[in-house]
């Protein structure tokens, strides 16, 4: 349902302990106005109902540009920034800084104009000077990563598992597991691979690529390379997010030495934990946070100051989150239920449109298991929330019956 106050819906789900909960999701869209003020948008954006992927181009691989927002539970708040890096005042630059600060959360990105790897006939490697640019789309396709096709793989798959690995980009033995769609990941020192190969436009300022480390040398050592830099959505089967779904890269990392462990993004025994944990216990709730590493590590209150550097012609976009939250009441058979969890799932800032959206999640535990009545062949229509009344800002959410069995009615 939608009105000028936002969009909202309700689902029945399970919490982290496996208990059934009624989860209400509320989404509001805000305009970023002059002077750093914000106001609710006249046009409220709808929920994203399914993941949206974009092809890299002529090379294999897809990367996410949006994730489904109909997620009943996230451990922390996803902070997402999408848009273009823009040179200040529209004047061309060869490199600049970009990033976001929201409260005490910060992530920085070093931005370079187009560069290539240069390799002489004698084997000396160097980087070309960055070309001037005015704007660049902030996507993981322009960050460090990719696939080295020179790494041999099984060309005669026989089993189902072998065919899955053969046909799936993320399972290629020459893949960079943190970002299969990026640029400049090279395992073998081959001139045809290196000379003229594009370098990433976006890098981690604390761990820049250098000519002496561009060649990995061994596909098992991928984890020693820099983490890709970005502020947008992060792939579900990219490392480290894939760990929370029970998956490991083709070559598992030295689990205690990765930068993800040093940054507190993963436990130092995460490889061992996956290998001894039944697959039925995955995915874990950490998996449902889809922001870039470092931007989904805590819950935000919703009133924090925000500064976005390098993604607006003015040089910086500054504002404060609105500090409001929807008034949600969940009732069962006329009795008010206790709210057991209320937090912000997502803050998604679209710098090119100067808007941002926020998704709140509100949960309560029903005293009886839902649905109260199961569908039958004779009566396939049922209401999962029968007996439940939900008010958002004083408005009663309508109930919808679902034809669960697919049988014709009437």
Structure, explained:
This protein is mostly beta strands. The protein has a domain at 1-81 and 317-410. The protein has 4 helices and 26 strands. The chain has helices at residues 160-167, 191-194, 259-262, 270-276; strands at residues 2-3, 6-14, 20-32, 38-40, 52-55, 62-66, 78-82, 84-86, 95-102, 105-112, 117-119, 125-127, 135-137, 144-145, 183-184, 202-203, 305-309, 316-320, 328-332, 335-336, 339-350, 355-364, 381-382, 388-392, 395-396, 402-403. The strands form 8 sheets. Strands 1, 2, 3, 4, 7, 21 and 22 form a 7-stranded mixed sheet that branches. A 5-stranded antiparallel sheet has the order 16-10-9-17-18, with no helix packed on it. Strands 20-19-24-25 form a 4-stranded antiparallel sheet, with no helix packed on it. It is globular.
Could you describe the largest sheet, including whether it forms a barrel?
7 strands, mixed
Strand pairing plus helix content: what structural class?
A: mainly beta
Helix content: under 10%
pLDDT average, as an integer?
Answer: 91
What is the succession of H and E elements? EEEEEEEEEEEEEEHEHEHHEEEEEEEEEE
Overall geometric form: globular
Number of helices: 4
Cα-based radius of gyration, to the nearest Å: 24 Å
Number of strands: 26
- Proportion of strand residues: 25-35%
Low-confidence stretches: 405-410
Spatial separation of the terminal alpha carbons: 27 Å
Question: What can be said about this structure in brief?
Answer:
The protein has 410 residues and is mainly β. The chain has helices at 160-167, 191-194, 259-262, 270-276; strands spanning 2-3, 6-14, 20-32, 38-40, 52-55, 62-66, 78-82, 84-86, 95-102, 105-112, 117-119, 125-127, 135-137, 144-145, 183-184, 202-203, 305-309, 316-320, 328-332, 335-336, 339-350, 355-364, 381-382, 388-392, 395-396, 402-403. It is built from four helices and 26 strands.
């Amino acid at each position: 349902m939608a009105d000028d106050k936002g969009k909202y819906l309700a689902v029945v789900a399970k919490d982290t302990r496996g208990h059934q909960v009624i989860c209400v999701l509320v989404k509001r869209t805000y305009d970023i106005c002059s002077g750093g003020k914000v106001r609710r948008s006249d046009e409220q954006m709808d929920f994203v109902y399914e993941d949206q992927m974009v092809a890299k181009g002529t090379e294999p691989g897809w990367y996410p540009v949006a994730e489904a927002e109909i997620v009943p539970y996230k451990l922390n708040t996803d902070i997402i920034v999408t848009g273009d890096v823009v040179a200040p005042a529209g004047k061309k630059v060869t490199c600049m800084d970009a990033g976001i600060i929201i409260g005490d959360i910060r992530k920085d990105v070093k931005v370079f104009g187009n560069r290539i790897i240069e390799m002489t006939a004698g084997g000396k490697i160097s980087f070309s000077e960055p070309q001037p640019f005015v704007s660049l789309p902030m996507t993981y396709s322009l960050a460090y990563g990719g696939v080295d096709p020179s790494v041999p793989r099984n060309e005669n798959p026989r089993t189902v598992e072998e065919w899955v690995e053969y046909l799936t980009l993320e399972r290629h033995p020459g893949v960079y597991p943190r970002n299969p769609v990026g640029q400049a990941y090279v395992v073998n020192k081959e001139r045809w691979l290196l000379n003229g190969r594009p370098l990433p436009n976006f890098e981690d300022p604390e761990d820049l690529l250098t000519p002496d480390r561009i060649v990995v040398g061994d596909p098992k050592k991928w984890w020693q390379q820099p983490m890709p830099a970005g502020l947008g959505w992060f792939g579900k089967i990219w490392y480290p997010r894939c760990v929370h779904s029970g998956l490991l890269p083709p070559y598992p990392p030295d689990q205690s030495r990765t930068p993800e462990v040093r940054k507190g993004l993963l436990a130092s025994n995460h490889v061992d934990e996956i290998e001894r944990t039944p697959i039925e216990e995955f995915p874990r709730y950490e998996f449902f946070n889809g922001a870039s590493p470092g931007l989904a590590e805590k819950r935000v209150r919703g009133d924090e100051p925000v500064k976005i550097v390098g993604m607006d012609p003015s040089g910086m976009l500054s504002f404060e989150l609105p500090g409001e939250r929807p008034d949600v009441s969940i009732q069962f058979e006329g009795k008010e239920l206790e709210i057991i969890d209320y937090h912000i799932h997502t803050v998604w800032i679209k710098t090119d449109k100067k808007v941002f959206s926020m998704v709140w999640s509100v949960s309560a535990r029903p005293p009886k298991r839902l649905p109260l009545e199961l569908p039958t062949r004779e009566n396939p229509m049922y209401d999962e929330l029968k007996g439940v009344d939900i008010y958002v800002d004083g408005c009663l959410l309508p109930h919808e019956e679902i034809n669960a069995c697919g049988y014709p009615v009437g």
